[in-house]
Design a protein that fits this description.
GO terms for molecular function: RNA binding. 36% of the residues lie in helices and 30% in strands. The chain is of the alpha+beta class.
């Protein structure tokens, strides 16, 4: 099963087509979306891409992290779901006791 990829620090001008073009060079894009933030921090938009395979996912992270897209140095990493983070935190809190 393919994992979702988180893309941070997207430019305000970056479009879904531009994001799709960057990731399609590596593999087939199954789904994609950009989240536009309403705060006033430059390049605070982010997005998610799901590739067709784990191999494509790993390659995309390796090749596109810290690359430039639409004038912005983007951060590309595996997406973490909120419930995973909560489970991880509760595990470590129990271990500290």
């Amino acid at each position: 099963m393919a994992k979702k990829i988180y893309i941070g620090k997207l430019s305000d001008k970056t479009t879904e087509d531009q994001l799709r073009e960057a990731f399609t060079k590596i593999g087939e894009v199954m789904s994609l979306r950009i989240v536009r933030t309403t705060n006033f921090v430059k390049n605070s938009n982010y997005g998610y891409v799901q590739m067709d395979s784990m191999e494509s996912t790993k390659t995309a992270i390796k090749e596109l992290n810290n690359s430039t897209l639409d004038g912005s140095n983007i951060k590309v990493m595996e997406a973490h779901y909120l419930d995973q983070d909560i489970k991880r935190r509760s595990y470590f809190q129990k271990r500290k006791r």
